[in-house]
Every structure is written in structure tokens, then in C-alpha cells.
Amino acid sequence: MEGIVVKIEYHSDLKELQSDAQLARLLSAECQSAPFDRLAWWEALGKHCAIAPLLAVAREGDAVAVLPLTGDGGHLSALANWYTFRFRPVVSHPPQAEVLLAQLARDLAAKARRLTLAGLPEEDGTASRIESAFRRAGWLVMREASDTNHVLEISGRSFDDYIAGRPGKLRTTLKRKTRKVAVEIITRFDAQAWEQYEAIYAESWKPEEGSPNFLRAFAKSEGEAGRLRLGIARAADDPQGPAIAAQMWTVEGGTAFIHKLAHRESARPLSPGSILSAALLRHVIEVDRVALVDFGTGDDPYKRDWMEQVRPRYRLDMFRPLDPHNWLIVARIGLRRLAASAKGG
User: Fold this and answer.
1) H or E element at residue 90
2) Which residues cross the membrane (predicted)?
3) CA-closest candidate to residue 273, choices 242, 229, 243
4) What are the pLDDT digits (tens) for 59-100?
5) What is the topology classification, in CATH, of domain 7-148+312-344?
6) Helices (H) and strands (E) in the chain, counts
7) What's residue 337's pLDDT?
8) Alpha-carbon torsion angle 86, 89, 95, 100, nearest 10
9) Which of 1, 58, 126, 154 is most buried, judging by how many CB atoms fall within 10 Å of its CB?
10) Structural domain boundaries in the chain
11) Which residues fall within 8 angstroms of residue 175, CB to CB, at 6 or more apart?
């Protein structure tokens, strides 16, 4: 670390970052090809989901690392919610990431006694990089698998080649029912179409939407940027009738993100969700030419029919070991792990 001068700063007012040319560019769509890594995403979490931000920033020369956090009372956590597929720091120069993160970890010791970061990927080394940085800074780090992420690598296949590899039951459903469902794919935000999505969601098997205003604002901004793919399905024998299924996807940086899907329970015999998924997959493979489809988090059985790879997501609980507020919590976590290990053995 000798000779390295790292500047640490914290931002709770995200508007002030607009005047910081380096950060504004780093956290924009110009540099970040996933919505969860952008300033606009974090601003929307604050505006629509009442999640107060605290961006921890480390700078060394032209290198920058941003760790988006939230929380108070000595316990900070990831600036994310149920709409966030995965959480990670944003860095301008990856080779310097661990050095900058270690400096952030040392400085954060004066601001928090505990940090909890969930949804961390490992395919890019994020979970291990953060774990190493905080251990080096003297934090006690506990790591565990917390979720799964289902994805599909296209690997140059055509849509027909991809479908040929799906489970037989799904292929039979598509063959029998595709003509019974009319599908429309909208690549811009349309208020009427969005109202149909909301109506379908309200009647679906899905739980109550976490923040409809957040999702609508996100869909609108993605539509303006040309990244939205909103699929609407209707019964083919009633093409002017009410929509029976809807899905919200976005596409950028060679990846299609599947954000939301729902269908009316009354339309289940038509399998409109499966027909709509197939139509959107055809579109992103043949028109958008994506290399990856990301179905977000959750181990729902139906995702295995469409996706082929499963990537783990990790949770890191990090504690200041000398802070007495942490001792009981750490002891409880340790006992729970011992019990789980004994049960598993």
C-alpha cells in the first residue's frame, strides 16, 4: 500500500453526483450495461421505495470504486431490493478493485459495526473480492449462499436449435397452443399496454407488487432508451379482448433481463405465459442477437425449463469483532451454522 493515496468520500444526496463528471459517467448507461449498476437505479430506489442511499466512494488517481449502501444505526446493507438481480461494487479499473475496496473497508469501520451484502455474484469474482478486502481490513466475515440465478447462454444457437433442446413437455405445449395465443412485443413504453400489465399482475398468482411506481418509472425510462421489451398476449380467437399474459424484459450489452411475468389464472388452460416466453426468446435471439438471457433470482421450477445454467448468489455478513453490539449476533449465527452442519452430517 506504500505510495498509494486513496481518497474516501460518502454521498447521501445523489443529485450532487451529477456535477461530478467522473462519477456521473461511470454510473451511467454509457459505462454500465446492467441497470443495477447505475445511478438512475439507485435514485429510483430512493424515490419510489424509500431506501435512503449512502454511496461509499474510493478514489486513487483515475481509479474509482463505488459501494452503494443503505442503512443506519451502525448496520449498513446493500443498496438494493427485490427488483435487483445482483449486487456488486462499481469499479472503473478492475485490477485496482481490491485495493480500493480494502481502503473503503478500513474507513467504513468508523461508520458501521456491521455490513450485510446479499445477492453477490461469484462468476466475476465479486463475492471473493469483497470478502478478501474486508478480512484484510480487520472485519470478521461470514459467507453463505443466499440465492440462485438462472441464465441461458445462447452460444450462437438459432431459436429453433434452442427450442429443440427444451424438455419434451414444454415443446409439446408450445406446439399445441402457440396458435391459440396472439402475441405482441412492444419496444417502447406505452401507457395503455402498461395498464394491461398491471391488471394482469393483479389477477395473477404473483404476490402483491413491491413498488408499482418504481417498476413503471423503470419501464418508462427503459422504453425511452430503446431497451424495453414488453410482451402482451391475448387469446387468438379474441384479439381485441383483454390481455391474458404480460412480461417485462429489457435488453442491453448483449443480455436480455427478464424482470416480470404474469398471466391471468383464468387463462391458464391456454398456457399464455409459456407462449409469450417463447415469443420473447425468439425476439431477443433473432432480432436483438443477445448472448445471454438472465432470469434473475429465485429457484422457481419453471425457470429450469427455459434456462440451462444456475449461478449462486452469496451473502456476506461482516462485523467489527471488538464491538460488543456484535457479540450476541455473531454467537447466534455461529450456533445456527453448527446446528445446520450437524443436521447435514
Assistant:
1) strand 90-91
2) none
3) 243
4) 998 999 999 999 988 999 999 999 999 999 999 988 888 899
5) Aminopeptidase (3.40.630)
6) 11, 13
7) 63
8) -160
9) 58
10) 7-148+312-344, 155-290
11) none
